[in-house]
Amino acid sequence: MAHKPDPAGLKLRLIAAQRLRAVLGGDHFVPLDAADLPDGRDRALANRLINTALRRHGQIDVILAELLEKGLPSRSGSFEAVLRLSLAQLVFLPDLGAHSALFLAVEAIKRDNKARHLAGLMNAVLRKAQSNSARYGLMDESLVLPEPVRKRWSDLYGAEALSRFANALIEGAPLDLTLRDDDPGLVEALGAERLIADTVRLEQRDRPVDALPGYAEGRFWVQDAASALPARLLALPEAGAVLDLCAAPGGKTAQLTKAGHRVTALDNDPSRLARLRANMERLGYDPELVEADAANYAPLALFDAVLLDAPCSATGTFRRHPEVLWHRSAGDIAGRVRLQQALLANAFRCLKAGGTLIYCTCSLEPEEGELQVDWALDALPGLELFPIRPEELADLPEIVTPRGLVRTHPGITPGQGNAGMDGFFVARFRRTR
Questions:
Q1: Of 188, 184, 328, 196, which is closest to residue 255 (Cα–Cα)?
Q2: Residue 157 located in a structural domain
Q3: Residues annotated in the binding site for S-adenosyl-L-methionine, as ranges?
Q4: Would you tell me how many other CB atoms lie within 10 Å of the CB of residue 127?
Q5: Can you tell me the distance from the alpha carbon of 27 to that of 54, in angstroms, rounded to the nearest whole number?
Q6: What CA–CA distance (Å, rounded) separates 125 from 131?
Q7: Which terminus of the chain is more exposed, N or C, with fewer CB under 10 A?
Q8: Across the 433 residues of the chain, what is the mean pLDDT of every consecutive 10-residue run?
Q9: Do 275 and 423 reside in the same domain of the chain?
Q10: Are residues 123 and 227 in the same domain?
């Protein structure tokens, strides 16, 4: 008997569920690529389903609480991942149709030995969801943010900013690029708008980054508008010796090299360093690359400046990585705070007297930003704050705090567009002795 072919769309649903299940288990989300799904249309659809399920995770939690009186079944294989993908489609992607969401969900868990006994439950839950989809679609958008996060960020940034955060999570992030050269023709070819200095933004794109005009020739690199700020605040004459700690994938290394500095880029991960090297080769830049631990690296000669983009909770990147909102705990942040302090202490040791230290994180948590400034000034004698002045960021003076620190978040919009920017913190210090 001939094998009956799988229903159309089932393969992409199975692969999407596998990737979502890994993220629910704690993995970092990496979009599906051609190796996962060769067909571009299937891949785009699968990534759309996963992204929607992640961005709407909080709202889907509320829906699940209503639909599953006894909660999610334990030891149920792919059941939760398939259910979340299907709810994302039924409630938040109505253009994809309801029938495929129900049919393919049941077919998908029938392929899973640990979930197939739940096929009836899957069908019943999704039919109930379908009948309530209009009501679910009107849910409070702030529910996309976890309740502890809503409370903390509302206190820190205000209710209006919190509303913008929720909208930013749902909408996702545009693509920001830093240009190698001032190139109006490239900006036009990309269909981009200028934001700040050499940063441009693509609100929409119809192809991968490596297929964009100018990519192969190394005429730009991907870098969020907020991430491009720290290197611009170095306040160092051209040709200074600069150490870029935790440098991969290399956006700030490229900026520093472009500015004419002698750059040493350090990272402790061989695979990340290989990616940095490939990026520099594409751009035509040749910084010194060092594989070492930033917490104990001891250079032969001290540097005029050090830029430390410290490992952090990455909560400021939630527009691209929604999973950070659900994966991060107070304990995670505390562990990163201790690492940041070790890195700050060694960055200070690598710096000449009179030199500049930039400390930055892509975090919205004060423990990884403002409170680290207090720690550094207390723990590192000879280090003083070198306040950032609003006129240094004339396009965005509102991101400079009265203390001379920089704080960005997705509720702040650079340029004339509607989309915001990543959450970022920047402090600038000077070593006095």
A1: 196
A2: no
A3: 246-252, 267, 293, 309
A4: 13
A5: 12
A6: 10
A7: N
A8: 75 97 95 94 96 98 95 94 98 93 96 95 96 95 96 96 95 96 96 94 89 97 97 92 98 97 97 97 98 97 98 96 92 95 98 98 98 98 97 92 97 73 97 96
A9: yes
A10: no
CATH code for position 35:
1.10.940.10
- Please identify every residue annotated as catalytic: 362
Domain match, 266 and 403 both: yes
* Domain-terminating residue out of 121, 139, 157: 139
Looking at residue 349, its amino acid is R
Q: What pLDDT is recorded for position 205?
A: 87
| Closest residue by Cα to residue 324 from 294, 368, 269, 376 | 368
Q: Which domain holds residue 76?
A: 10-139
pLDDT of amino acid 415: 64
- Report residue 78 as tokens: 């792919």
Spatial neighbors of 253 by CB under 8 A, at least 6 apart, are: 244, 247, 263, 265, 276, 280, 285, 287
- What pTM was estimated for this model as a whole? 0.94
426 and 301 within one domain: yes
CATH number of the domain that residue 313 is part of:
3.40.50.150
CA distance 305 to 351: 6
| Boundary residue ending a domain (110, 139, 168) | 139
Distances (CA, A) of 122 to 73, 76, 306, 319, 433: 11, 11, 55, 30, 67
- Residue 1 has what pLDDT? 45
What is residue 330's predicted lDDT score, i.e. its pLDDT? 85
Q: What is the Cα Rg of the chain in Å?
A: 24
User: What are the start-end ranges of the E strands in 112-240?
Assistant: 175-179, 193-194, 199-202, 220-222
Residue type, 180: R
Long-range pairs for 323-330 at CB < 8 Å and ≥24 separation? 323/23, 323/28, 323/29, 323/54, 325/57, 325/145, 325/146, 325/149, 325/169, 326/57, 326/146, 327/26
Residue 3 falls within a domain, yes or no?
no
Residue 212 burial (CB count, 10 A): 22
User: Is residue 213 a part of any domain in this protein?
Assistant: no
Residue pointed to by tokens 């562990």: 335
Q: Strand ranges (DSSP E) for 23-123?
A: none
Total structural domains within the chain:
2
Angstrom distance (rounded) from CA 166 to CA 425: 20
**Is residue 335 within 8 Å of residue 66, measured between CB atoms?**
no
Q: Could you give the angle at which helices 40-55 and 10-24 cross, rounded to 10 degrees?
A: 40
Per-residue tokens: 166: 């929720």
Task: Examine residue 129 and state whether it is found in any structural domain, yes or no.
Answer: yes
